[in-house]
Structure formats: structure tokens, C-alpha cells
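Support case: FE2/S2 (inorganic) cluster complex. Customer-provided input:
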Amino acid sequence: MNEENDGGGARSGVSRRNFVGGSLVAATVAPLLTGQAETAEAASAATVDGVTPVTVRAAVNGDPVTLRVDPRATLLDTLRERLDLKGTKKGCDRGQCGACTVHIDGRRVLSCLTLAATASGHQVTTIEGLADGDRLHPMQQAFVDHDGLQCGFCTPGQIMSAVAMVDNEGPARSDDEIRERMSGNICRCSAYPRIVDAIREAQQVMR
Ligand code: FES
Ligand code: FES
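Agent response - structure generated as follows:
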């Protein structure tokens, strides 16, 4: 989904994303954990370099989670290393590939550029939380049906990005529009034609 492979327009996907730094810091912190049993992680992060850990309370894939994290910790590292949610991939770790895409309150964000602390009070969804029990999300199913993956490394990010794209912006009206809207998600295997096929089909089901 970048201009190097499919001519899908200038690569500006990073700037199109809703980064936590802007939108979520200002967002109201909903009392989503009120009255819910919290899953407290006993091992809090030790103070390193004089930095005091901060407490994050969020819902991750529907489950309330409370963590003490280094205020400098990214959401990506926190999901993978603290919560063992390894479905979210670390590609570039600098906001350029989209492999780390997750949802915060239903909007796609690059978790490598998102501080875990800013997710407090919000709903975080990763690829592990997308299916409904044993039933795959229509976007997941479409990627399977259309062979939309080769090595599969970019696939979780592609799927999370595509789901939020359709949910928030509505179906794309053309394949070029799909490519443009998905231009922040890079596939090193160049599986783009089948990714586009999958998204085109899934967005019809998601209406
Ligand atoms: S790992 Fe986050 S954009 Fe590449
Ligand atoms: S399927 Fe290999 S990086 Fe996309």
C-alpha cells in the first residue's frame, strides 16, 4: 500500500493516523473500569534512572487491566512484553510500516508511537481481540479467503488498519481509494493485490 509498489499515491499514511499524542490526551477518560474487577499485575516496573512508574488502567480486548509502566514505555512494547500479546508486530518501531497498528477506542493508532500511559481510561483492541469467539472478523476471514498474506508479518497491522478504516470512514469507493487509505501499512512481500481484494470484499460485509 505504498507508492513504491502499487502507485497508490504519496506515502503519507503516518500523518493520516490518529495518534494518541493528539487525540487521546485530550479525550475524556471514561470510567470504564468502575465496578469491574481489575486484573492487577503484581510486578510493577522498577524505578529506572529515577523515573517513577505510572499506573495505567485500560480495557485490553475487553478485559480490565491495571499495569505500572515506565512513562516512556510504548504501547507496543507493553502489549508484547508485559501482556504477552505478541500478535501486534514490531516492524520499523518508528512509525513507518504500520505493522504495530492497534485500535484505541475503535480508531487505528501506531502502537510504536503511542505511550502506554496515554491509553489509560481507554479501550485497546489488538488482533487477538478482533474475532468473536471462534468466528473470525469478516476482515480476517477475507484475508484468509483471498490469500492476502505471504509471510504474514504485516497481516495483523493490515487487518487492524483496514477494520478501523472501514468502521470510521466507511467503505472505500475504489481500489485506488483502498490503496490510498491503507498507504501507511507496508507489506515487504508485496501481497497488495490480494490485500486489496480482501478489503474490497470485507467492507461489503461490514456495512
Ligand atoms: S512498528 Fe510501528 S509503524 Fe512500524
Ligand atoms: S505478507 Fe509478508 S510483509 Fe506482508
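Residues 13 and 102 are 15 Å apart (CA to CA).

Case will auto-close in a few days if no follow-up is received.
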